[in-house]
Amino acid sequence: MHGVGVVAIRDIPAGTIVFRGESERVTWVSRAAVRRLPAAIRSLYEDFGMVSGERIAVPPSLNMLSVGWYVNHSDRPNLEAG
Questions:
Q1: Which pLDDT tens digit goes with each residue over 36-52?
Q2: Cβ neighbour number for residue 49 with a 10 Å cutoff
Q3: Which of 60, 68, 69, 71 could covalently link to 19 via disulfide, CB atoms 3.0 to 4.6 Å apart?
Q4: pTM of the entire structure?
Q5: For 67-73, which contacts have Cβ atoms below 8 Å and span 24 or more sequence positions?
Q6: Rounded Cα distance, 51 and 12, in Å
């Protein structure tokens, strides 16, 4: 493990909308385009982006990440983006 993550301070019932009120849109970028970015910027996309096939979704501004962007991935997730 590395970086920053989110940890619940109490049990969260199944079906709970954890980040209610967040309506932030995402920008989809091809993974090929991300590979061409300078290393420091590429790292932000890889660390915070949501991967779907050959695309990565990131917030419109990586300077204004809400807490939802700090949720880590898992091979057995117990939280999903809605």
A1: 999 999 998 988 888 88
A2: 21
A3: 68
A4: 0.64
A5: 67/6, 67/19, 68/18, 68/19, 68/22, 68/24, 70/4, 70/5, 70/6, 71/5, 71/6, 72/1, 72/3, 72/5, 72/6
A6: 25
